[in-house]
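Justification of computing resources. Each target in the renewal requires a structure prediction run like the one illustrated here; the chain below, 285 residues long, is used simply to show the kind of job we budget for.
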Amino acid sequence: MRWSRPALTGWAFVAPFVVLLVVFLLLPMAYALKLSLYRSTLVEGEVFAGLGNYRQAFGDPEFRTGVLRVLVFGLVQTPVMIGIALVMALLVDGAGSRLARALRLAAFVPYAVPVVIGTLMWGFLYSPSTGPFRFTGVDFLSSGTVLASLGNLVTWQWAGYNMIVLYAALQGIPREVYESARIDGAGAVQIALRIKTPMIASALVLCTVFTIVGTLQFFTEPLILQPLNPGTITNSYTPNVYAYNQAFAYQQYNYSAAVSFLRGAVVFVGSYVFLFVTRRRSALR
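Resulting C-alpha cells:
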C-alpha cells in the first residue's frame, strides 16, 4: 500500500494522541483486565480464577451498597445540578454584556478551584469542631446528612462548568427567533421555557451524561472527607473508594481490578440507558 503525503501528514498529527491513548489507557486497561481474571494465593501464587472475582463482587454486600448509594446520589444530585446550571445559563444569556461577563466568571470560578482544595475548604466548613456552622448544632457529616453535604460540594464545583456549556449552546440560537416570539406576544419566561430550553436539548443531554459518568465515578470528595468522620464515610462508601482500598489498603489487586471493571459496566449501562430514553428529544444518536 502506497501512502500519499496528505495521509502521512494526517497520521503524523494523530500519532501523539494514539501513542498516549495506547500507553496510558488501553495498555493499563488490558493489564487490569488480566489481573481481574487471576487470584493471588500464598501457596501457588497467581492462579487463573476466570470470573471468580466478578462473582465474588456480585455477592459482596459492601460493593452492592456502594453502587446503590451512588445511584441514589445521582438520581437526586444530577437533576438538581443541571437545573441550577440551566437557570444560571438562562439568566446570563438574558443579562447585559458587562453583567453577563461578571456572572460567567463568578459561576465558573468554583470549577477552576482544584477538587482537592475545594473539598478541603468544604471539609473545614463542615467540621463540627472548627467549622463556622458548629454553633448550629447540625453535623453535616453525620450518616443522615453526609450525602446531601457531598451533593452540595459537587454541585458547587461543577454547576458552573455545565452552565458554560449550556450558555455556549444558547449563544448559537439565532436572535431572530427571539424577536419573532416577542412579536407574537411571548414574554421572557415563555421564551426561556418554550424556545431556549427545547433548542438546547442536545447540550442538556450531553451535560447530563457527563454528570452521570462523574457521579458513578465518585471518589475524591468522600476519600478526602473520610478522616473527618470515618464511621460514616467508610472504606466502601462508593465503588471507587472500595476498589481503591481493596488495592492499596488490603493488597487485593485482583479483586480491586474486578470491582473497577464492574463499576465501569455500571457507568456504561447508566449512560446508555439515559441516552436511549432521551434520544428522541435531542440531536444525539
